[in-house]
Each structure stands twice: as C-alpha cells, then as structure tokens.
Amino acid sequence: MRGRLEALGEALFLAALLAAPWPYGSAGDPARYALVALLLLGGMLFAFGRAVDGEGLPLIALAAAALPGLGLVQIALGLSAAPEWTAETVLVAAAMMSALVFWSERGRERAAATRLAAAVLAVCAAEAVFGAAQWSLAPERIYGQASPIVTTPFGSYVNHNHFAGLVEMAVVLSAAMALGLARLRGGVTPGVVGLAGLSLGLAAVHLASRSRGGLIALVAGLLVAGALWAFATSRREGARVRLVPLAVGGLVLVGFGLAVVPADTRAHLATILEGRGGASGDYRLDVARDTLRLFAAHPGLGAGLGAYADAFPAFKRGHGDVRTTHAEDDALELLAESGLAGLAIVAWIVTLAGRRLAGRLRHGRDPFRKGIAVGAAGAVVALAVHSLFDFNLRLPANALVCVSLLGLAASPREAPRPVGGRALGFAATLFLLALCVAAAWRSAGAVALGRALRDPDPQMLVAALDRVLVRHPYLADGYRARGLAWRELAVGRRGFAGPRLEWADRDLGRAVTLRPAWGEAWADRAWTRLLRGDVPGATAAMDHALQLDPTHPALARAASELRSRVVPTSGSSSPR
C-alpha cells in the first residue's frame, strides 16, 4: 500500500511541477493556492503511507516543519504585521517543505530521481521555446495580452528575472547530467549529446531574457556544480580531478549563450561591470538598508512570514512613490519576516541536506545518479545566488523546482533512520490534510473575490461580497472593498447614511484586524469616521496610517486634506 500511495504522491508532485510555471509562475492567488493544495495532498499521501507501515518521518521532515511552525507561532503570539498573509504563507511553506521531504526520500530510487530531473528539464525546455517564440512575436505581451502588471515579460512570467531564475536551474542540471551519463557510458553517446545540446539551448534563451542577476547566478551554479563534480570524482580511488576541462566546459556554455544573443542584449548584460546599475541599483540598496532596519526592530522571531509588504513601509525612508512589496533580495526578506529563528531553521535544513549530499558523493557508485545530485545542488545554488538580487523564491513555480531539486540533492544512498514512529506519521497526515483543505478553501475564496470585484456598481458589489465573505471571512481585501462600497452608498443619502457608514467602519475595522499594519485601510477608516462625525477618531486613524506608511505620497495628501477639514481638537483618541 505504501508503494502505491508514494507513486500517487509522486504523480501529484510531478503534475504540480509541470503545471506551475504556466499561470504566470502561479503568482496569482487562485493558481497559487490550487498548487499548494495539490502539493499538500501529495505530502499527506506520503506521510500516510509511512504511518500505515509503522514508520515515522525522516529527520529532515522535522527541520522542514519548523518553518511553517514558526509562522503559526508568530500568529499565536501576535507578532505578525499581517496575520492573514502569515497564515497564507504557512500554507505555502508547508507545501514547499512537503515537496522537499518527499523528494529527499523518493529520490533514493534512481528511476524516481530520473523522472523528477526529466520533468524539470521538460518544463524548462517548454518555457524556453515558448519564451523565445513569444519574445520574437510580441515581446510586451504574455499569451497575446498586455496589462499594467506586465512590465518586462518573458515566457509566462511577468518579470524576465523570474523566467531566468527558472531556466538557469535546468541549464546547470542538464550540464551535470550530461557529465554523469558520459562517465557512466564511458564516452559520448546520443543521450550525452542531447543533454549537452539542451544545456546550450537553455543557456542561450536564459541569457536572451536579459537578466543580469541571472547571468551571475548561472555562472555561480556552474562553478558549484563543477566543484562538486570534481569532489565526487576525486573520492574514487585512482581518479584525477580534471578542473581545467570542467572550467572550459562552463566557459563554452556561457560563451555560446552570449555569442548567439543579439548585440544589444550582450551590451545590457555587460552593464554588470558598472557596479550599482544607476537608479535601479540605488533603489535596491535603499530597500536593503531599510529592510535591515525592519529586521533590527524584530530580530528574534521576525515581523511575520509573508507580512513584508505591510511591515516594511514604516521603516522606509525614501521611494515613497514605489509600492515595495518585496525586498528584491529573498535572504533579506526572509530575515526581516522570520528573524534569527528563520535563519536558524534554514541553516538546519541546509546542513542536513549538505551532509546527505556529501555522503552520496563520497560513497555513491552510480555516476549518472551522482550527476543528477551534483546538478540539483548546483541548480539550487544558482537560484539562491539569483535570489540575492530578486525574489525568485516568492514565485511558487520557481520555489517548487528549487525545493524539489534540494530534496533530490539531499536524497541519501541509504534509508535514514526515521524518528517519531507511527504516531508522528499519522499526526503529520492529519495536519497536512487540514492544510490541504484550507488551501483549497483559500483558492476558492480568491476565485470568488475576483469575480465579485468585477462589478463596479457599489450596491451590486456589496451584495456579491456579502456572499463571498460569509464563506471566506479571512479576506481583508474583501472587507475593505465592501467597506468602501458602503461608504459610497452612504454619501448623499441622508436617510441611510448613518447605518451605512457604521457598516463601512465595521468592515474597515475587520480589514485592519486581519492586516494591522495596512496604512491605506487605516486612511480609509479615517475618512469614514470623519463622515460619521467622529473627528478625534478620524484624526487618530489618519495619524496611525502615516506612522505605518510615512513616505506614501497619497497618504500624506489625504492627511493634509483631512486636517484642513476638521477643527483642531485638544487631543486624539487612540485608533481602535
């Protein structure tokens, strides 16, 4: 039974991996949480199979569970700047950690490891072909459509850097697999040529995306993969470390990609040598500095997983016209959201994975399987380096490939001793099942909210949101939209203004309960209170909004206008 459950779980994980990049990297809430539900279902089947067989979980599962566990602790202790978003991030983190744990065990089978590697290469190759074709036909569109969020698209990604983040992992993986297969077969075979050719083609499209961070990441990933391959071959008796051929191979790979892209693309990539990169570089440095200030305010347990966009504005000293939702650096963003506790959890996971990888490279006898492990590790390093310049790990599609390959790299030759016994397996099964249901519920809520918000008529919008929020009472955006609709319906209608403004204030209060650091919602509440005649409450709410987001130009204008409309009072009540 365990074998059938794990096979079904593998099918779910592979299906998720193959589908994830196409709906804009699964960045939108409906796709994001549908993907999460699928992954959690696969993880649940894995845990249930082990529990039925009377086995516990591998130690790496405990380390993996610590990350979503940290989010739950933050919510319980009231530490998150946006409890709604932290709860949602717990779902995402649990799903990604399920993939890591699953592949760290399933990947011990050579056939399963090969299937995962093949799936990664297949989806990345398909993305590369689609991206190259779309770029040549309509570079400013995705699926033939343009929208305000489509800025620098490539493939199915809104941002070319995220496309590069996905494809660079496949470049490193396919190159290492070609080396492993060549060692296994004793020379060049059609399979070796195919993998090497795939790596060259992917490298060309990767560089054509014009991602400077991607170029740095690709070089770093190839260097690490080469060093690991040299280490693996040097462990064999009589084997010589051939660093020069490995270095030449890496240069050929990158050089080929640079040679075939247009001259203007090469010129753009060459601006890496200029250092800070002008206004974009200044912005990133300023955001990094302010993110460290956010971390310094919450060093232990952080400001809340997933809560960066709400927690950061209070520490922002410039660029107020830019709505900063990510730190442009996954490491800094994780540090700010999870504090030193999150850093310790990641170090624990990486340490366990590194030990398992070292054991395979020292004692493994299958060169092809070693090549897969080396390629997977190099791919993870490539995305990790790229994430120092971007937020690739916040894209579910990229994060899923990364954690799956990390699990593959961390897959040991021998079955590790399980911990916890059957009871832990059943507990994990129930926990993952609950999270799976919650993720499906969240995805359905995102779909329902999107449909409701399409109607511009405030009365129809209220009616639609009434139905949505009864079923999905966790949607802060829904409460804010309904509150603003009630307020619009109150203006100019004396007989109904009182209760409608009361309902508007109530809904906006629910929104800021779910997201306490949401400056715009506090400003909306201030205007609503002013319309109700609550001048002290309006002033206090607007002051609080400015404390939460002091550089927001629209909030500054709103505060100035509100002050000009009210008679100064001797004191203000605290925001409620």
Descriptive account of the structure:
The structure is a single chain. 73% of the residues lie in helices and 0% in strands. It has two domains: 2-433, no CATH class; 455-565, Serine Threonine Protein Phosphatase 5, Tetratricopeptide repeat, CATH 1.25.40. It is mostly helical. It has helices at residues 2-19, 29-52, 59-76, 83-106, 110-137, 160-185, 190-208, 212-234, 243-260, 263-270, 278-297, 308-311, 330-363, 367-386, 396-409, 421-452, 458-471, 476-490, 494-514, 519-531, 535-548, 553-565. It has 22 helices and no strands. The longest helix is centred in the middle third of the chain and has 34 residues, at 330-363.
**What is the beta-strand fraction?**
under 5%
User: What is the share of helical residues?
Assistant: over 70%
Low-confidence stretches: 570-574
Q: How many structurally independent domains?
A: 2
Q: What's the number of extended β-strand segments?
A: 0
Radius of gyration from CA coordinates: 26 Å
Which geometry do the CA atoms define? globular
Largest pleated sheet: none
Distance between the termini: 55 Å
Structural class based on helices, strands and sheet pairing: mainly alpha
Give the averaged pLDDT, no decimals.
91
- Strand/helix succession: HHHHHHHHHHHHHHHHHHHHHH
Q: Number of DSSP helices? A: 22
